Structure formats: structure tokens, C-alpha cells
Amino acid sequence: MGLLGRYMMINAQTLEELVTLENDDLIEKIEELNQDMENQEYDIDKLWDGLHFLLTGVSASQPIEGNRLSEAIVGVNVLNSDDENVDFVAYTKFEDLSEIITSLKSIDISKLKKLFDLSTFRKARIYPDIWRDTDKEELFDELVHEYKNLLNFYEKAFNKKVHVIVSIY
């Protein structure tokens, strides 16, 4: 199945509850929230690391603190950051969304396409292991599609004045 990335809009009360939970309880609560149709979601599937690498030049396993493009993919505040053996869950507060949206909107897709080199994805061991030169056009199109969907998701979250939970597991 692999590591799947998911973004979910949550209100302040839910965020307050989530930050108090440990890994197993946290994941259980997130799964419960996933079933609630009121919590709008975006599922980036397995392309979270590829999109992070495309936008920042590094793997999502090495988030760049203070870099809004990195934070767009992996969130701003990591939960359970003291334990490397837990599922990855982070959050982004509403107050950070405007800068993240501005950074995402500043991306020049045509420039990214010119620089798109799948050998760098392979060398950096970007997850998942799909970065074949024969699929270059299709992979770039998929990453751009996910980028646009993520930007749209963040704009909706901003308009609703909510926070965002990022989970990768």
C-alpha cells in the first residue's frame, strides 16, 4: 500500500484535542475524523515526497523549517516529533495559510518543467520509486496536477478560516 499523504481541514477545537494525543490515539482520532464528511480532505496519495522535491529540491524527509513550500507539503508544526518510530502527523494553523498560498502561487510551472530531471529524483531516493525517464511527461503532469489540487485545497481552507492536519502513513 505504501505511505499516503492526506490533508484535512479542521476547526480550532479539533486541533486543540489532537495536539494532546499520543501516536496511537492520534491516528485513531484522525481516522475517525476522516469518516466525518464535514472535514474536507485532499489525498495526495504517494506523490507528497515527489512534489516536495519538485518545489524545494530536497526530500520531504528533510523538511525546511520556515520554507513555506516545504511547509505546504509537510505542515508547519510536527506532532510526536520526539519519536522517529511514529506515524507522521503535522498541522498548519490558519494564520500560516496566507503565506503558504502566496508561496505556492509564486511557482513558475514552465520553469519547473525545464528543470525537471528524473535522475535527481532517483539520486535523492524520492518516494515512491517510480521516477523513470520513460514516464517523464506523465510524472510531471501528475505532480503539477497534485500541486494545483493542493493549492486549491489551501485556498478553500483559508476561505473557511480553518486549520489543516497533514498525515503521512
UniProtKB/TrEMBL annotation:
The keyword Kinase does not apply. Pfam families: DUF1877 (PF08974). Keywords: Coiled coil. InterPro entries: DUF1877, YfbM-like_sf. The keyword Secreted does not apply. Residues 16-43 form a coiled coil. Gene3D superfamilies: YfbM-like super family (3.40.1760.10). It comes from the Bacteria. Signal peptide: none annotated. This is DUF1877 family protein.
